[in-house]
Every structure is written in C-alpha cells, then in structure tokens.
Recover the amino acids of this structure.
C-alpha cells in the first residue's frame, strides 16, 4: 500500500476538486441541452443567489408554466482573521510542517524526541533531556526527509536545548507569551509519541493548572524544581520538546514531561510543559550568545551522596553539604571556604543536599551576592559571596 506525504495529499485534494468541478459543469451542460431541446431557447433565464445557480425556463410562446432547476454550488474555504480562534484541523495544517523528530544516538543507545523550528535558517528548540549525552543527532521533517543536526547549546536547569540543521527557508512556529494563559484554555500538542512510527500526532485538551511546581531528576545533577503548565493533552515519551499550542496555532509551552504512574497506580492526563515566558529568555540567550548567559555558579563541588543524619552524628558534624572542592578563582575561595567544610545554609535557608543549594542559587544571576553559612572545626561562619558565571 502506498504511503502519501503532505504534498501527495495536496495534489490528490486539488485533483479531486478539479474532477468534482468538471463533473458539475458537465452535469449542468447536459441538463441545459435537455431543457433546451424540451422547451426551446425562449424563456431561459439564469440567476445566482450567491449560494446556488438557479435556471428558470418557460415553454416558447407560453406566458405561463415553466420549470425551475436549482444547482447547489460549493462554498469557498473559510478565511480566518488574524488572532481568531482556529479549529483543530487548521491548527494542524499551520503547525505540523514546523514540528520535527529529533533522533539521538549516544552511549546509552538511541532515543527519539520532538522539536520545533523557530528560525528559518534551521534553528530548532527541543528539551535538554532529549539531546543530553547524544553523540549524533538527526532531524526528521514532516515530509520524511532527514538532515544531521548539531547541538548549539543545552541547558539542564531549564531543560531547554537548541539544535541546528543546515539550510534556509524552513517553516517556523511563533512563540508567544504564556503570561495570559489560564486554567481551562484550549490547547493542542503535536509530537512523536513512542517514536517516529507515530510522527506528528496531534492531541488536544486544556490547561489543567498554571504555575505548577514539579521536581525532576537529572541523571548527573540531582533533582531540579521547575514551574510548568499542566495539561490533560495526551503526551507520551517521544513528545518531549514538542510544542504546546494555543487555539491560534501559537506556541505557549514546550512539552517536557508527564506522570506515568504513582507507585502502584497508573496515571492519565498529567502532562507538563515549560511556559514560553520561562523558555524564551533561555532560547534567546542561546541564539544570541551560543550559551545561557548569566547562569550563576558558587564555585563549590560536592557529592550527590551526602552524609546521613546518623553518619553526621558519629562524625560530630551537622547535617549539610560536605564540600569535595572549591575553585580557586571563585569568590567562595577568596572568602575562606575550603574542601571539607559543611555548608548548612544559604541566605538563612537550611540546606542538606546539593539540590537544596542549586534550588536557592538558581534564583539569582551571575554577579548577585548570597550569604553562605558553613561549619568547620566546631564553629559556624557566614560569608557574603558574589556568584560567578557558570563555565560554558
């Protein structure tokens, strides 16, 4: 069985429309010939009321009687005003050509995600976790063609990545502010659930909640807390990095995750997307600088596997983050923080894990200052530290 791409369908639709029009015209002509033969040409009148073709006929030489034949004519395709809410079919037609498959190969095997074209010269937005660890990235377009892609930059904190393919003239999606999105708004997701066999699947639903805080596990950096849009659109592995669209075919979020189960219970209708108001500053920084400018860094490192409360009690130290090292070019080093110190608080907030430190630190930008409290040799010290920019 032959498979048709978008171009084939357009040709078939065009051919079908032309064939139908030809049949209608032929039918009208046949009826006219028959009518003329029956009634003669006298008294034939053709009128149009905008939605149908009306032929009125009277027998030659007769002042009364006659026949009225009505032919329905097809209505024109609808034209939508700028900013008007669109039906799902029109949203798909406008958005689907800009949605791509992101096929990644790395040390762990291969995986598939979704991406969306945001610039005509081949820049594509997807999720960090889609391309993380990939040694080879291939983009598959809606027409089935493929091109190799390079990773421009990838940011684990926001879970946003930008990749690029060579070429120009690509169809793009429009990203708009998510600031006006409210619970109950109609939304649509387009992506590749479970892989490329279901490429460019569209599902619909609504915004179930805004400003929802969720905690995700990064494979190498611990837990990350993100503020997201919640939706009941059906999204699955493979949808990651795809667009969450409003009813005007504009992007308001980047699909990132879903809850699949809760202990022994299966879960449906709990999908999440990164709001564009959070994603756009990251995307724009990557497009302008090639990396996320201003990401804060304290200049300390520590193991994710921290001491338990019991281990800390045995060693005679408080619960906190035991430092493995301190960068010598950091302000933390200049203020006296050293390997073996136990960080117990930042800005007065208690910290017990690396994730606690990252959660507080990521509220700030490089150049901002924080107060860091650490324990050493039976005493506590609090110092003011200027955050440095995270290394590229």
């Amino acid at each position: 069985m032959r498979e048709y791409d978008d171009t084939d369908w357009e040709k078939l639709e065009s051919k079908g429309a032309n064939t139908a029009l030809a049949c209608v015209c032929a039918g009208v002509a046949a009826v006219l010939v028959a009518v003329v033969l029956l009634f003669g040409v006298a008294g034939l009148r053709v009128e149009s009321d905008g939605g149908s073709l009306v032929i009125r006929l009277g027998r030659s030489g007769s002042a009364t009687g006659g026949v009225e034949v009505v032919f329905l004519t097809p209505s024109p395709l609808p034209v939508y005003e700028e900013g008007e809410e669109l039906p799902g079919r029109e949203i798909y037609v406008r958005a689907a050509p800009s949605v791509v498959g992101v096929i990644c190969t790395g040390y762990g095997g291969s995986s598939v995600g979704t991406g969306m074209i945001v610039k005509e010269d081949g820049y594509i937005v997807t999720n960090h976790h889609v391309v993380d660890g990939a040694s080879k990235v291939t983009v598959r377009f809606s027409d089935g063609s493929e091109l190799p892609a390079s990773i421009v930059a990838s940011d684990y904190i926001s879970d946003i990545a930008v990749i690029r393919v060579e070429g120009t003239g690509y169809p793009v999606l429009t990203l708009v502010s998510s600031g006006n999105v409210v619970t109950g708004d109609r939304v649509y997701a387009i992506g590749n659930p479970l892989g490329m066999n279901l490429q460019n699947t569209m599902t619909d639903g609504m915004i179930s909640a805004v400003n929802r805080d969720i905690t995700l596990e990064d494979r190498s950096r611990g837990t990350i807390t993100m503020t997201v849009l919640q939706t009941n659109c059906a999204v699955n592995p493979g949808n990651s990095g795809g667009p969450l669209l409003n009813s005007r075919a504009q992007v308001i979020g980047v699909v990132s995750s879903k809850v699949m189960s809760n202990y022994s219970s299966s879960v449906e209708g709990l999908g999440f997307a990164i709001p564009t108001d959070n994603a756009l500053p990251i995307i724009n920084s990557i497009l302008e600088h090639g990396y996320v400018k201003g990401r804060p860094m304290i200049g300390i490192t520590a193991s994710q596997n921290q001491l338990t409360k019991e281990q800390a009690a045995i060693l005679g130290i408080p619960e906190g983050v035991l430092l493995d090292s301190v960068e010598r070019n950091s302000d933390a080093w200049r203020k006296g923080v050293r390997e073996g110190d136990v960080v117990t608080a930042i800005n007065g907030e208690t910290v017990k894990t690396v994730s606690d430190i990252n959660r507080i630190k990521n509220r700030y930008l490089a150049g901002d200052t924080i107060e860091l409290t650490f324990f050493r040799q039976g005493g506590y010290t609090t110092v003011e530290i200027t955050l440095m920019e995270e290394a590229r």
Q: What stands out?
A: Confidence is low (pLDDT under 50) at residues 1-17, 35-42. The domain at 296-389 is CATH 2.30.42.10 (Pdz3 Domain). The longest helix spans residues 6-39.
